[in-house]
Amino acid sequence: MQAAKPFIVGIGGTTRANSTSDRLVRAVLAATEREGAATQMFGGAEIAALPYYAPEKPDRTPGQTALVEAVRRADGLVIGTPGYHGGVSGLVKNAIDLLEDLRGGARVYLDGRPVGLVVTAGGWQACGVILSSLRDIVHALRGWPTPTGIAINSHDDSPFLADGDLKPGNVRDMVGVMARQVLSRIQTPTATS
Ligand SMILES: Cc1cc2nc3c(=O)[nH]c(=O)nc-3n(C[C@H](O)[C@H](O)[C@H](O)COP(=O)(O)O)c2cc1C
Question: What one-character DSSP code corresponds to residue 30?
Answer without folding.
Answer: H
